[in-house]
């Protein structure tokens, strides 16, 4: 579907990723040669987004096998690279299970990591197939006028491999000729909306407008948003979702204005071992300098630069994610269909978790 993927292998059987910290200003490819490279890429957000974190960790295990690293240590180090997105643990568990009885660790890890990548592409495509009718329905209700969709963070192809989760229904709607416009939250502090979502929507020629994070409520009050779609890093058995910090506030505003609030997710983001997202999902806290400084292309030097936006001595708090309770989620869009954000709905689509 897309002109590029977010992770790929090279002729000499190493792994390459895009350094997403530099987008949209610079296209820099990073080669991952050791599992420590994969660990650092996840930790430092060279790659980010739940499915891509999982895929990178899977290839990290392949690299560990290839370099003859201590596999227990590699699993443990990768496990500790980021805490919230459950895809990381899902991918590592899948790799561990596959390698348990493997006679050729390197070849088995290579093949399994590739399968994880291919599965994600198909999963995201199917999220689009199931999400598309929701957009079509709104378009019909509006007699073909533009459907305005608000999103937060980047849950597009850059957070996955191809298609993306929230962008898959959007790309498929555009392909069908439905008029769509996306309001993109800038998503402070790491600006995944401004830097990444705007970048990929531009490349796919999707009409969009960047907004500051605080603008969504106003737009909703004035009938300028038809639906919200966000991604998730972990979805619990009762349908609570953890996503980028600020998602909860958008869900509240959507609820108050009777605007549907959808969450698009691959089932790799389900954590059916926990129920209460508020109590049980570990929320990442990142370095305060991500809040104190803004990173962007300098008007003066034309180079990427960091700018301090508060007094030198001011301390900042930096929770990376928040939890949106299931009661604020209109429905979950998965690769198997659309369901209510509750245990019943999830079990209907995923009976294997009964
Ligand atoms: O900190 P990030 O950039 O990894 O956070 C990403 C998100 O919150 C995404 O919305 C989520 O991972 C879904 S990606 C399809």
List the helices and strands and how they pair.
Blueprint: E1 7-9, E2 15-18, E3 29-32, H1 35-43, H2 50-66, H3 71-79, H4 87-99, H5 105-141, E4 147-151, H6 167-175, E5 180-185, H7 192-203, E6 208-211, H8 216-221, E7 227-230, E8 234-236, E9 241-244, H9 247-256, E10 261-264, E11 270-271, H10 277-280, H11 289-292, E12 293-297, E13 304-308, E14 321-324, E15 331-334, E16 337-339, H12 343-349
Parallel strand pairs: 4-5, 4-7, 5-6, 7-10, 8-11, 10-15
Antiparallel strand pairs: 1-2, 2-3, 8-9, 9-14, 12-13, 15-16
Helix pairs in contact: 1-2, 2-3, 2-4, 2-5, 4-5, 5-6
5-S-methyl-1-O-phosphono-5-thio-D-ribulose binds next to helix 2 and strand 9.
Keywords:
single chain, 354 residues, alpha/beta, Four Helix Bundle (Hemerythrin (Met), subunit A), Rossmann fold, 2 domains, seven-stranded mixed beta sheet, four-stranded mixed beta sheet, 16 strands, globular, binds 5-S-methyl-1-O-phosphono-5-thio-D-ribulose
Describe this structure in words.
This protein has 12 helices and 16 strands. The chain is α/β, with parallel strands linked by helices and 354 residues long. The protein folds into 2 domains: 7-119, Up-down Bundle (Four Helix Bundle (Hemerythrin (Met), subunit A)), CATH 1.20.120.420; 130-353, Rossmann fold (3-Layer(aba) Sandwich). Strands 6-5-4-7-10-15-16 form a 7-stranded mixed β-sheet, sandwiched between helices. A 4-stranded mixed β-sheet has the order 11-8-9-14, with helices on one face. A hairpin with a 5-residue loop joins strand 1 and strand 2 (15-18). It starts with 6 loop residues before the first strand and ends in a 5-residue tail after the last helix. The mean pLDDT is 98.
């Amino acid at each position: 579907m897309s002109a590029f993927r977010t992770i790929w292998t090279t002729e000499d059987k190493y792994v390459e990723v895009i350094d997403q910290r530099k987008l949209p200003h610079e296209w820099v490819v990073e080669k991952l040669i050791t599992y420590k490279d994969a660990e650092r890429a996840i930790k430092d957000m060279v790659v980010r987004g739940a499915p891509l974190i999982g895929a990178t960790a899977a290839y990290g295990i392949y690299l560990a096998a290839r370099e003859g690293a201590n596999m227990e240590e590699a699993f443990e180090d990768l496990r500790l690279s980021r805490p919230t997105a459950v895809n990381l643990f899902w991918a590592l568990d899948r790799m561990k299970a596959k390698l348990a009885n493997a006679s050729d660790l390197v070849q088995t890890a290579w093949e399994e990591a590739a399968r994880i990548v291919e599965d994600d592409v198909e999963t995201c495509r199917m999220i689009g197939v199931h999400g598309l009718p929701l957009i079509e329905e709104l378009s019909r209700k509006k007699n073909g006028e533009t459907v305005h969709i608000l999103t937060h963070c980047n849950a597009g192809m850059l957070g996955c491999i191809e298609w993306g989760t929230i962008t898959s229904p959007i790309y498929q709607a555009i392909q069908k000729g439905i008029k769509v416009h996306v309001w993109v939250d800038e998503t402070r502090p790491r600006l995944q909306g401004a830097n990444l979502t705007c970048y990929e929507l531009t490349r796919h020629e999707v009409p969009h407008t960047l907004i500051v994070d605080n603008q969504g409520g106003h737009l909703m009050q004035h009938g300028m948003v038809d639906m919200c779609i966000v991604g998730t890093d972990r979805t619990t058995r009762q349908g609570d979702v953890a996503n980028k910090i600020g998602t909860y506030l958008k869900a509240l505003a959507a609820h108050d204005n009777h605007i549907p609030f959808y969450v698009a997710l691959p089932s790799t983001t389900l954590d059916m071992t926990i129920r209460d997202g508020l109590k049980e999902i570990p929320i990442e806290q990142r370095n305060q300098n991500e809040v104190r400084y803004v990173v962007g292309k300098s008007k003066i030097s034309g180079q990427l630069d960091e700018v301090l936006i508060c007094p030198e001595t001011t301390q900042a708090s930096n929770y990376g994610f928040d939890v949106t309770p299931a009661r604020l989620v209109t429905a979950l869009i998965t690769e198997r269909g659309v369901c209510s954000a509750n245990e019943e709905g999830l079990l209907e689509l995923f009976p294997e978790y009964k």
